[in-house]
Amino acid sequence: MAPSTAVPEAGPERRKIETRLTRGDRLYRSLATAAAAVTLALIVLIGVFLLIRAMPALREAGWSFITVKEWRPDGQQPRFGVSAMLFGTFVTALVAMAVTFPVSVATAIFINEYAPRRIKQTLTSLIDLMAAIPSLIFAIWGLFFLIPLLLPIEQWAVDELGGSLPFMRAAAIGASLFNAGLVISLMTIPIATSIIREVLSQTPRHECEGALALGATRWGMIRTVVLPFGRGGIVGGSMLGLGRALGETLAATLILSVTFEIKPRVLENGGITVASAIAVQFKDAQTMGLSALMAAGLALFAVTFVINMLAALVVSRSRSGAGVEA
Amino acid sequence: MTTEASTPTTPAPAAAEGGTLRAERVSAWFGTRKVLEDVNLEMGAGAVTALIGPSGCGKSTFLRTLNRMHEIIPGASLAGSVLLDGDDIYGGTLRVTQVRRRVGMVFQKPNPFPAMSIADNVAAGLRLTGTRATDRDGLIEDSLRRAGLWNEVRNRLRAPAGGLSGGQQQRLCIARSLTVRPEVLLMDEPCSALDPTSTRRIEETIGELRSQVTIIIVTHNMQQAQRVSQRCAFFLAAEDQPGRVVESGPTERLFGDPEDPRTADYVHGRFG
Amino acid sequence: MTTQPIAAPRPAPRRRTRTGAGADLAEFAGAAVTSFAITWLIFARLMPFTVQAVGFAVCWYGLFLLAYWLITRDGHGPVIAADRVMGVLITTGALAAVTPILGVIGYVIYKGAPVLRLNFFTETLAVTGPLSAATEGGAMHSIIGTLEQLGVATLISVPLGVLTAVYLNEVRGPLTRPTRLVADAMTALPSIVAGLFVYSILILQFGWGFSGFAGSLALAVLMLPTVTITAEQVLRVVPGGLREASLALGAPQWRTVLMVVLPTARAGLSTAVILGMARVVGETAPMILTAFGSSTLNANVFSGQQDDLPLFVYNQVSSSQDTQVQRAWAGALVLLALVLVLFVLARLLGRPRTARVRRPAPKPATEPAAKPRQERTPR
């Protein structure tokens, strides 16, 4: 063939490649698509069914659903609202996160930077095991072991500080929002630790080495390189833990003595969270009661969903989270 | 293993099996970027055609248009037609899976299936195309013999394929391709990841297969092209330009007395 | 004359690099002793209340940090002092995370083992009353319930989850991004909401009544996102070259997935399944609303209230009878053992195999490095 030296004329047009899928492939693709559609349908169904069931209660209560704290949906004069529950959920989650945040960050840093090589894998497995232990078991351990252990200190705190700080007063201690939050932190620590550990391990090694080569101490390097890099992942991991804390049922159910009150005295007995209200009130609820519980569940669903989406967004947008599966 | 004492330029025996591939005005794009321009090439039976040229000139892309693997990449498109024994493989008459059965491929990096034994790997093509085989063991032995691997693995057919050396894995992949009885075998730089000894063995295998299957091989290695092929096509891409075939013809002529000065420059090692 | 070979010089001994010095230990010990003494003083003499273990420890710890910081800052400067103190704090944080795990496991064994007898696995609570001893009766009905519900939940969620993962990684249709987002969001679904959902759709809408199957559905809803996401990660690790090789042989896509991709990912997929199971085996909250629990054996998972291990523990522990609480600990021990078994199983299955595809290298093949596996932490 003669070498082409002339300018080639315009060749044939791009063609649309026809791929006639085999019958097997068409079936396979349909099945897989159907499976994916199930996941999508599921979340829609959950929202829809809860909403349908919650409508009677919402219509009955109107906006007072958010402001009222009593819970008497089945009766002559139904009066019910989630304000006490929301407060309780908020406080327990806050306490849980206040404990989880420093502990999980410290543990993650310890595993990555301080732990000797041999125990690193053991520690990581231990944290994974902690995530696998059912919350029921943590709840009963908290109820029977941890809280009795802490009672004397709490009593001391109430006695010493109750005079000056009103929210530290307590008529009786033990079955409090604070203790419930403490036990919930046991369940959120492993989640947050796993994610933060993975995020921090992605810190570019050359940046760390740069800091060390300048003569920085280990903590200095962590403070200036690792933590700023991992900021997004730390926030995201904590928020995922927060989502878990909001939905946690068992700890609150077993530990709290149920009172539908807004309780700023966090060490005092009594309180209620959304999740524990559903668990506790379910057996005796009648029609309106069930509807009200559905509404409460819907509220919980919406809040955790939003927080989880935000957390995923924060993690993926950050420098550290971009390559990590949250 | 027998060594064929023949030079690559000996013409093929008269009764050559294997199919004929003809590319007519083939151009290829990745998205909006044109990577191949107007390739016309005839690759006949009984001969090994080598596609040579510096890296990035579209040789591998062209190879993949010959068995419809180019379109797997999202955004890929092409123009022109490729005729296998007269039928356009991109037309409506042939199914994709049929085309790929008839035009086999061996890749640069050996990719035996790790979840299967050696024997299962060789026969994988049958399972994957849903072909029933009456004499499965006989077919496996035949393919392994043709690939020049039988003597080395005959006693461990049930062993996992991952336990073989690189050269053995590549010959296993050749055997695997041969089991489905393709008419054409495409080889995309099959020896570039292997040591010289394995390379030599595979080149011998290519020589032995030549009369049974039409072979088209992409290679960076000019000496290999001279050793192994009877026909050659020289690809070249100017800067920011799609690749084109500058010259093609019998290997002896391309290397001994090229018509195009660019071909001469390349085969004499002045660039690339 | 024979020449004496010159003795080869002895190789220099390997050194262990040390970042600290001996004096550092003295500083640490000194700070510890000082703070202990002061704490003792506060608790025994100056303050009018009894020595109290946890309070003592907290006070000692706080004073130790202060003393350590002051000593180090005086000796080495504030930067080193900060490094030391932060080191202590970080180690404390890690201990605070690890101690509860060991504490929980130990305590459950301590409380549960004395009550656990063989009849625990063979009897139910049908004949036990509030006055029965803790070792009377058993949880056979609960164990059977757990196994049945877990089995049904796995049968539902695993094929769905793996197929969805196949869609996300292999088919990659237009639903990919929303499905992945939703699956991620669903991992955070509160378990009680899952129970509410199944209750509202199965028991209210269809009027089926409480059953083990309703419980399994709730568990399946909770398992599905975990299995999907882990399975997708596993499929992603399968090398693309294998899919190419299969397609180049003339295989249709479905055979490629079924006969090449999935078998290659078998170990990782098994891990995904078992992790999903471990996650839901201890779920209590949704079961309150769906399976409802009972004290007698109901082997039919599809009709009638059914008990399971978490409900057993929950109900027994909520009672005011001591013996029932003790029995609950035995149940907790069995549940914990079940979770541990699943966890270890997942770890063993996830371990990379030794005979892997070797790199084609000119040198004689050496032992290949194990591929790291990304595992999704269950919640």
TrEMBL record, chain B:
This is Phosphate ABC transporter ATP-binding protein. Keywords: ATP-binding, Nucleotide-binding, Translocase, Transport. CDD domains: ABC_PstB_phosphate_transporter. It comes from the Bacteria. GO terms for biological process: phosphate ion transmembrane transport. GO terms for cellular component: membrane. It comes from Actinomadura craniellae. GO terms for molecular function: ATP binding; ATP hydrolysis activity; phosphate transmembrane transporter activity. Residues 21-267 form the ABC transporter domain. InterPro entries: AAA+_ATPase, ABC_transporter-like_ATP-bd, ABC_transporter-like_CS, P-loop_NTPase, PstB-like.
Automatic annotation (TrEMBL), chain C:
Residues 143-346 form the ABC transmembrane type-1 domain. GO terms for cellular component: plasma membrane. One of its GO terms (molecular function) is phosphate transmembrane transporter activity. InterPro entries: MetI-like (IPR000515), MetI-like_sf (IPR035906), Phosphate_PstA (IPR005672), Phosphate_transprt_permease (IPR051408). It holds the Pfam family BPD_transp_1. Residues 370-379 have a biased composition (Basic and acidic residues). Residues 355-379 are annotated as: Disordered. It is a multi-pass membrane protein. Keywords: Cell membrane, Membrane, Phosphate transport, Transmembrane, Transmembrane helix, Transport. The chain crosses the membrane at residues 21-43, 49-72, 84-110, 150-169, 181-204, 210-235, 256-278, 328-349. One of its GO terms (biological process) is phosphate ion transmembrane transport. It is found in: Cell membrane. Belongs to the binding-protein-dependent transport system permease family. CysTW subfamily. Part of the binding-protein-dependent transport system for phosphate; probably responsible for the translocation of the substrate across the membrane. This is Phosphate transport system permease protein PstA.
